[in-house]
Design brief:
Layout (H helix, E strand, L loop, with lengths): L7 H7 L11 E5 L2 E4 L4 E4 L2 H4 L8 H11 L12 H13 L4 E5 L2 H19 L6 E5 L8 H6 L16 E4 L4 H7 L4 E6 L2 E2 L5 E2 L2 H13 L3 E5 L14 H4 L5 E4 L10 E5 L1 H4 L15 H14 L2 H25 L2 E7 L2 E6 L7 H10 L2 E2 L1 E2 L4 E4 L7 H21 L1
Parallel strand pairs: 3-15, 5-6, 5-7, 7-10, 10-11
Antiparallel strand pairs: 1-2, 2-3, 4-12, 8-9, 11-12, 13-14, 14-17, 16-17
Helix pairs in contact: 3-11, 4-11, 12-14, 13-14
Cofactor: pyridoxal 5'-phosphate
Catalytic activity: N(2)-acetyl-L-ornithine + 2-oxoglutarate = N-acetyl-L-glutamate 5-semialdehyde + L-glutamate
Subunit structure: Homodimer.
Length: about 400
């Protein structure tokens, strides 16, 4: 049977409805410009949710993928391969880490980090040392373990009974953490900047305090850098801008520049928490993903590139503030590199999704972070012209939305 061209209605007919995608279907993209089935163009300020760090159809990433696909696709974890070893070496040499483990997504990376922490505590201390401390409004993934650790009950409440031994505290509240920490604490997991939670940065004092408490109680400090890692904040990893070093770091999203890959990085000391047969993944560290990630990392891990990200952040925020000075729709504009969140005023509370939907009608794609924050995570190499066009279109959409209001 000859296949017809799919339409948006096919999603409703054939797909399990865990998403509610836009009414248009993207079919082609270059850089930060995307085209739908009708040929309409959009400026992409979503970046695949901070994934397409080097834009769409990046020629260097395409070349790496094509060359690797001519050689070796997949072997399983009974064998190693050259691209994964090259990638591990680069990540170790560029960070605090001594060892890496590769998987396929941010959720898998956090799952591995949490399992490592519990096993390390069990092996080196006692079975009672198993408590995990996380924070309200955090997001760590959609597996049962990571969704339980994330601090957003709407994502976990319908899947009870949930894994136990997990507590949630207010973010940036060091006193609450002091009160909750004990020698039974196996790990503290924290995002240096809460992305899904509204682009909320941790304070330096808070992260330093977390580090000290973990040292005091022999707990593993896990930084979830799935969204903030690989150049997003203008540093290779956000911890480097804070001057606070974790014991384990999870990374994914931008690491593959659009090709699925995740990893955890850790030191020799904590790497002993996982041994042969204790954890694994069939696809993790496959040659295709690692070949692409090597090129992505080589491009981004450059002081000139990262400085350009910081310069783009300054300009992006400057334009947003100028727009807001006229429209007064945002009470706060927060940024960490090219991860930017616009907090809606009380007048527009709960309307981030509606604003984002209208923006697509004007040809610009944006994200939300909850009901009250419009979020941007564009490609780190977005061109000046694409940035200006997208911000202009966003301004037009806001003006119409305010008129409708």
């Amino acid at each position: 049977m000859k296949n017809s061209i799919p339409s948006r209605k096919d999603f409703d007919q054939y797909m399990i409805p865990v998403y509610s995608p836009a009414p248009f279907i993207p079919v082609k993209a270059h850089g930060s410009t995307l085209f739908d089935q009708s040929g309409k163009d959009y400026i992409d300020f979503v970046g695949g949710i901070a994934v397409n760090a080097l834009g769409h159809a990046n020629p260097e990433l395409r070349k790496a993928l094509i060359e690797q696909s001519d050689n070796l696709w997949h072997t399983g974890n009974g064998y190693t391969n050259e691209p994964v070893l090259t990638l591990a070496k680069h990540l170790v040499e560029a960070t605090f880490a001594d060892k890496a483990f590769f998987c396929n997504s941010g959720a898998e990376a956090n799952e591995a980090a949490l399992k490592l922490a519990r096993r390390y505590a069990r092996q080196n201390f006692s079975e009672d040392k198993n408590e995990i401390i996380a924070f309200n409004n955090a997001f760590h993934g959609r597996t049962l373990f990571t969704v339980s650790t994330g601090g957003q009950p709407n994502y976990s409440k319908d899947f009870a009974p949930l894994p136990g031994g997990i507590s949630h505290l207010p973010f940036n509240d060091l006193e609450a953490l002091k009160a909750a920490s004990s020698d039974k604490t196996a790990a503290v997991i924290v995002e240096p900047i809460q992305g899904e939670g509204g682009v909320i940065p941790a304070t330096p004092e808070f992260l330093q305090g977390v580090r000290e408490l973990c040292d005091q109680h022999n707990a593993v400090l896990i930084f979830d850098e799935v969204q903030t890692g690989v150049g997003r904040t203008g540093h290779l990893y956000a911890y480097q801008g804070y001057g606070v070093t974790p014991d384990v770091l999870s990374t994914a999203k931008a690491l593959g520049g659009g090709f699925p890959i995740g990893a955890i990085l850790t030191t020799d000391k904590f790497a002993t928490g996982l041994t042969v047969g204790s954890h694994g993944t069939t696809y993790g560290g496959n040659p295709l993903a690692c070949a692409v990630a090597n090129v992505s990392l080589n491009i981004i891990d450059s002081e000139a590139f990262l400085a350009d990200v910081r310069a783009k952040e300054a300009h992006f925020v400057e334009v947003l503030k100028k727009i807001n000075s006229e429209l007064n729709m945002f009470s706060d504009i927060r940024s960490a590199g090219l991860l930017i969140g616009c907090q809606l005023t009380d007048e527009f509370a709960g309307q981030a999704k509606a604003i984002s939907v209208l923006a697509t009608e004007y040809g610009v794609m944006t994200l939300i972070a909850g009901a009250n924050v419009v979020r941007f995570a564009p490609a780190l190499n977005i061109s000046e012209s694409e940035m200006e066009t997208g911000l202009s279109r966003f301004e037009q959409a806001l003006k119409e939305y305010k008129t409708r209001k």
